[in-house]
Amino acid sequence: MPHTILTLSTCGQGLYEFTADAMNFVRASGVGEGLLTVFVRHTSCSLLVQENADPDVRTDLNAFFRRLVSPSSDPAMCWIVHTTEGPDDMPAHIKAALTQVSIGIPVLNGRLALGTWQGIYLFEHRDMPHRREIVLHLGG
User: Fold this and answer.
1) Which residues contact 79 (CB under 8 A, 6 or more apart)?
2) Is the pLDDT reported for residue 72 higher than 70?
3) Count of domains in the chain?
């Protein structure tokens, strides 16, 4: 079963597309039919399949999640106990819990079965730059 580990560098909160990397991996594998499992090896970021045509979608999603889960320094978040790694850490864990750390994408005729406007994204929930590892595993 083919697999690889991608490393993505982030520069703060936002969506980082890696669709082309996943497509290249599938193409190079030679597998015609199967399931690509995408898994991020961290607890303060997540994965999304989302529109990749209009960058305003990414802007609005990031703004929505910032409003949904404020930094722990916000008085409304005074109930948060886990604060040793900064005011963005526990909110990042909450955002990751609300989204997903693993997704499955069918592979048909040697290609990802994504829709026309769909892309695969790492959703970074921390403010500081990070290096994130994403496991791609292709099963038949």
Assistant:
1) none
2) yes
3) 1
CATH number for the domain harbouring residue 105: 2.60.120.460
- Asked if 89 and 82 count as a contact pair (C-beta separation under 8 A), the reply is yes
Q: Which residues of 12-50 are buried (b: 16+ CB within 10 A; e: fewer)?
A: ebebbbbbeebeebbeebebeebebbbbbebebbbbbbb
Structural domain of 113: 3-139
> How many Å apart are CA 62 and CA 123, to the nearest integer?
9
Stretch (H or E) spanning 124: strand 118-124
Give dist(CA 21, CA 70) in Å, integer: 32
pLDDT of residue 65: 96
